[in-house]
Each structure stands twice: as structure tokens, then as C-alpha cells.
């Protein structure tokens, strides 16, 4: 028989306990490392998401800046000087209200024609334009966008105008349909789409 003395038995038990302790420590360290790894992966993914968001926002800002630069260039190109006012001559067509809002968004308003020189200036562009005159508030009372009421029978109306033809014609266009320079205005339904002219003070 092989005899195992007490010292040998005690040593084996001690070695087993140490191995178990080492194993438990290794498992605990592994779990801690796994947790740290998972945390690192999560933080990496969060950083990646934030990076992607930042790139997207940068691209959107670059795109917006390009659009604003293009609009600024177009505005500078289309604004013309005459006397003490600046004028924006549109290339697009919109209804009267949308045209006016376009002007107001840019610190201007639809043009108020109060001189022969101003009418002649707009005539040079040889097109149909909305101007800042309407009787939207009260039929037959023609009012400029600054609130000034135009006296009856005044203005550069074409012969027979304003006539409110067929349906509500509450907004005014200027056009060249008559060789006489003082016969340019015609009333139209406000939902017609035309080019328009914005006006603002040169000092503003």
C-alpha cells in the first residue's frame, strides 16, 4: 500500500484551496475586464454616434451656407438703385401675398410707385410685376403697403381700370400694354402669379 502521511494530505488540501482562490480571482478579474470591455465598446459606439451627428450637422451647415451665399449673390445682383431707394427685381413668379412676404422677410416691401421716374424705372424691365397697392381691406379703397390711401381717380391706371373684372380683383400689377407712360396699372385677383418688385430705403 502507498501511504500518504498527514503532511502530504494537508499540503494537497492547501494547494487545492490556493488553486480555487486563484481560480475565483481569475474569474472575478475576467468579469471585471469583460465589464470594462463592454463599457469601452459602449463609449466607442456613443462617440461614433456623436461623430456621425457632428459630421451630418457640419454638412447641413455647409449646405445652408451655400444656399445663403447663393441667395445673397442673387439679391445683390437683382437689387437696383434708383433715387433714394433700392429695388429687388424678381425673376420668379408668386401670388401677391407671397411676393409681399418675400420682400418683408428681407427688410423691404412691395414697391410704392409715387413718381414718374419710379414708374419709368420699372418700365425698363418690360415685364408684368406686382406692386404694393391693393383694395384687399375695403373694396374700392386703394391703399399702398405703407398704409397710405391713394385718392380716387389718381394713379397710373390703364383705361377702364380698375374694373374688378368677373371676380375680386384686389391687387395691382404694372405692365406695358399702352404706349402712354401714365397708363400702366391693372387690377388682378391676388392669387395670380407674377414677378414682383421689392423696395427699401437705400440707407436701411
Automatic annotation (TrEMBL):
<feature type="domain" description="C-type lectin">
    <location>
        <begin position="86"/>
        <end position="199"/>
    </location>
</feature>
<dbReference type="InterPro" id="IPR033989">
    <property type="entry name" value="CD209-like_CTLD"/>
</dbReference>
<keyword id="KW-0430">Lectin</keyword>
<feature type="coiled-coil region">
    <location>
        <begin position="16"/>
        <end position="78"/>
    </location>
</feature>
<dbReference type="InterPro" id="IPR050111">
    <property type="entry name" value="C-type_lectin/snaclec_domain"/>
</dbReference>
<keyword id="KW-1015">Disulfide bond</keyword>
<keyword id="KW-0175">Coiled coil</keyword>
<dbReference type="Pfam" id="PF00059">
    <property type="entry name" value="Lectin_C"/>
</dbReference>
<dbReference type="InterPro" id="IPR016186">
    <property type="entry name" value="C-type_lectin-like/link_sf"/>
</dbReference>
<dbReference type="GO" id="GO:0030246">
    <property type="term" value="F:carbohydrate binding"/>
</dbReference>
<dbReference type="InterPro" id="IPR001304">
    <property type="entry name" value="C-type_lectin-like"/>
</dbReference>
<dbReference type="InterPro" id="IPR018378">
    <property type="entry name" value="C-type_lectin_CS"/>
</dbReference>
<dbReference type="InterPro" id="IPR016187">
    <property type="entry name" value="CTDL_fold"/>
</dbReference>
<protein>
    <recommendedName>
        <fullName>C-type lectin domain-containing protein</fullName>
    </recommendedName>
</protein>
